[in-house]
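hey can u run this one w/ 5'-O-[(L-methionyl)-sulphamoyl]adenosine bound, need the structure tokens asap thx
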Amino acid sequence: MKKTFYITTAIDYVNGSPHLGHAYEKVLTDVIARFRRMMGDNVYFLTGTDEHGQKIQQSARARDVDPKTFVDSVAPEFEEMCARLEISHDDFIRTTESRHKDVVCRLLQQLFDKGEIYKAEYQGYYSTRQEQFLQEKDRNEDGTWPEIFGEVSEITESNYFFKLGAYQQWLIDHIKANADFIFPRYRAKQVLEFLSEPLNDLCISRPRERLEWGIPLPFDPDFVTYVWFDALTNYYSAVADKDGLWPATFHVIGKDILVPPHAVYWPIMLKALELPIPQSILAHGWWSINGAKMSKSTGNFVEPIEFVDQFGVDALRYFLMREMSVGQDSDFSMEQFLVRYNSELANNLGNLVNRTLNMTNRFADAKIPAVDEVGEPETALQATWEKTRDEVIPLFEQFQFNVGLERALQFITATNAYIEQRAPWKLGKSDDPADQALLRTSLATMAEALRLGSSLLLAVTPGSVGKIQGVLGHRMGEVWRDELQWDHRLTGNTVEKTCILFPRPEKKS
Ligand code: MSP
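ok here u go:
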């Protein structure tokens, strides 16, 4: 039996509300999940929230509530965002759930029993903001600490350490032997660079007096678990009791958390536990907004839910996938959004839908006619379709959604051009039987092209595609295999009168 395609997102910190970066990662993962389902894979899709650690404890204190009350108030915003973005996840895990905490404790205990975790005294520098111990090599050339570390203090304390170093060579060999382990491939270089220096063992505990909000170590309750050890385990804890899901096929994450957590700590943790490691890690780029870092305090921010309220979920999903080349950074601006919205969605796809419905209603009593006379324009459009389909699927397989969408929309453009060429509105005025035959052919051809072209967008804009197929009187099957043939299966279907997909955006008051 084919292994389940198990895909995950990073789990989001709940110390603030969801933003565009969180939304993008969910949408990207959802598009991959939906695409794989259409390709016939059995998909399991996990997302969730990361709810322990210093940042959360601090945010809760700032609001004068206990951390549990705080996370319980914010986590639903992330679930709500997933619902509004039409994310098709199978499970949503919160790291404060006991099903997760129990597994973290079990794994820690196993590592401790195997001698992979030991206690030692640590003396050195600590960054509270990054929840990380620092080394001399982390300093700036002038001896100060980089700003990202915030306040750095010198501390001495006992802690528990995980023997990362023991598996360094194994990991290097694995990365070198498995070109697909890290996507895009060029990022593997960054991982190997990190691994070119000897790895320090990883401090996986925090003394309780400094940090209370975490999972107590099962073998020493005076300590809580380091938040990354806790968080990474979610990918496994969510499916530990489900047969055939582990290891994950893809972990989708942002480029900032590839090295070291996902590409170094996580595979080594699994190796030490004698568990299989994930097949691949996909690191996406970051969004800026209007050319600058997004920031709530300066107002350079997009509220995903508000955006969906204003423009509709598919407009946002489409833009995110069309604009960003997976792996690279991209910029979000209203101007660029509106250009794509108007020219690609409203005036191209939306227009084809309207024309098809209008003309079928006007000239054929809303019934899609059978093809009659087939000429060069029809043969050419069919050939364009076949070429488009055969290009787009491999592009999607390679996560090149921006290019795949461009090609799919080019086919929609070609269909609109076909309509201009045949001009059914002229044919409809003629009583000549040859013109009537061509009219039937052109109505059938545009409906068929719309059915096929829109079906390629299914993973990206599922709601709109569902609507389009619906107004054509068609219900798509579960997989693409049977859907992408040019075979005029709509003949005789009754179409609806109208379908509003991408209305002219209202100005924000
Ligand atoms: N909690 C950790 C992840 C633990 S995974 C076991 C974390 N959370 S986060 O909320 O800070 O980020 C969640 C995801 O959102 C990360 O993959 C991160 O890269 C992504 N993004 C955060 N800001 C982003 C942009 N501006 N653009 C695109 N994605 C960004 O890290």
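Residues 334-484 form a domain with the Isoleucyl-tRNA Synthetase; Domain 1 fold (CATH 1.10.730.10). anyway lmk if its weird
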